[in-house]
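A brief tutorial aside. Many learners find it easier to grasp structure tokens once they have seen a single protein encoded end to end. The record that follows does exactly this for Zinc carboxypeptidase. Read the sequence first, then the structure, and try to relate runs of similar tokens to stretches of the chain.
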Amino acid sequence: MKKFAMTVGTSFLAASLLMSPAQAAQSNTGPAVPSEQQLSISGFMTYEQMQKRLDQIVKNSQGRVEVQTVGVSNQGRDIYKATVGTGDRVILIESEIHGNEKTGTEALLNILQFLGSSNSPKAKQIREEVTLVALPKMNPDAAELDRRGNAMTWAEVEAAFPQLEGVTPSWNYYTRTLQGTNYGELPGFDVNRDFNPDLNYEPKAEDFPGNSASPGWFITPEAQTARDVYLDLQKEFGNVDVFVDLHHQGPFMKVEGTDDDVTMSISAQFVPDPNTAAGEKYSEYADAYDYDFSRQLNVAVYDALQIGNSPFKNISLYQQGLDLPGTALGSFALNGSGTVLFEIRGQTQSFGQKMRGQLVKAVEDGLYGIIEGVADESVYEIDPEEYEDIPLTIR
């Protein structure tokens, strides 16, 4: 790993591709995209702007925030990790593994700025009790292309993994130009289907093309980087206590039993519990998996967004009963992390600047619910059954 060094990213803008994890197509032709979701990213932070902001955060922090290059994307952009705090409890937060899902990056940088620069009792307690690790633009090529998938061909996969030569490309490989996307000219992968609960897994030809209910393969440099960060934290601290993945969902979701638009969907579950019959195939991970802690963390998010006159009260549960071991959430949950999915409303490009700011603030407030709850240990006192009282998201 190397310390932060400024490089200039090339900016590419294309129409966005929005899909929830459950909607991803199980073929190599790429998913369909509703036309109303083809939106501009004007006003969101570019890769180069993120680099400059990280540089400024480091300077303002007087040594409290460290930024390192931890990997390189397929197109050669550095992938950054920012760390603040010295506590024993580790919180790892990832944003923009889907490059057209951008509010999390803004929220993370705001949190890093506060924790790095503030001398308030709140900031001091968090820094003393927690080590916060942020991957603010996990998939920078996709972020600059304003699309879900990275930029990588199957030929490049075969070159990196000769044992895969001639096999059918993985199901999450997008190759078709469709409704504003450009995968026909520049193919790529849904990186958030390239994870495997076996963190030391090496790709095998017999595991392709796979499907959404099967583990991934760590064939993309972006997924490899996230995996390596996770393994390094495990080695240093013994465990990654919390993993949070920041995403977007469509703007048309409702809170079950109401006509209210969902501000954000959250979830604690992306694989069935290995301690149950439904999760028996994951039995080797049964001792590590902690669904109750994941539920406690999600309740902490929900509670944080119900306080006072918050405009962000419409929080609901993302689709439950999923089995997605190829996602970062599923993989890291099986390895012992409490997990939380954030699915903020819409591609916020479809709203004005004020709404974008409000949704970024909703992500921040939800994250502080986790961070403060872990720092002051209040999250461990939450009844995990309260999770079951959170209303569902409906389409």
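Self-check: The first strand starts at residue 2 and ends at 3. If you spotted this yourself, you are ready for the next section.
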